[in-house]
Specification:
The protein has one domain (3-140): Flavodoxin domain (Rossmann fold, 3-Layer(aba) Sandwich), CATH 3.40.50. The chain is built from five helices and five strands, in the order βαβαβαβαβα. Helix 4 (98-109) links the parallel strand 4 (85-92) and strand 5 (113-121). 38% of the residues lie in helices and 24% in strands. It is globular and about 40 Å long. It has helices spanning 14-28, 43-47, 69-74, 98-109, 126-140; strands spanning 3-8, 32-37, 51-55, 85-92, 113-121. The longest helix has 15 residues, at 14-28. The model has no long low-confidence stretch (mean pLDDT 96). Helix 1 crosses helix 5 (126-140).
């Protein structure tokens, strides 16, 4: 059974909906899943998992959330993450979702194997919720 960690930050609840959907997809696929708000997460939660999903809205000029998610993600540049299977998810409102492209490139530079992402404008649609569930199933494979 694969162990999956989901770590996210959400303000309006849109990213939380995606996190819950990824959780459900991974659980349906038989994985052991731990889901945490970034403020409650530890680096070891990620390092001890077989696969991980990170989520954040676009904030502060096309960047991930800067107070909690940014410092947490930055810690991984000093760790060997061993090509850990990873999914990124997030939401945006007023930009084009550029933050996700930048975040994906950064995570690949840190050594994560980013196998998928979902970026939604505002609240996720039913189709986007289903895509998030599929990403959870992918993490569990």
């Amino acid at each position: 059974m694969k162990k999956i960690a989901i770590v996210y930050w959400s303000s309006t609840g849109h990213v939380e909906v995606l996190a819950d959907s990824i959780y459900k997809g991974a659980k349906e696929a038989g994985a052991e899943v731990e889901i945490k708000l970034v403020g409650d997460a530890k680096v070891q939660d990620v390092l001890n998992a077989d696969a991980v999903a990170f989520g954040s809205p676009s904030m502060d000029n096309n960047k991930i959330e800067q107070q909690q998610m940014e410092p947490f993600i930055s810690e991984f540049k000093t760790y060997n993450v061993e090509n850990k299977t990873t999914v990124l998810f997030g939401s945006f409102g007023w930009d084009d979702g550029k933050f996700m492209r930048d975040w994906m490139a950064r995570m690949k530079d840190y050594g994560f194997n980013v196998i998928g992402e979902i970026t939604v404008k505002e609240a996720p649609s039913e189709a986007e919720v289903n895509k998030a569930k599929e990403l959870g199933r992918m993490l569990a494979k």
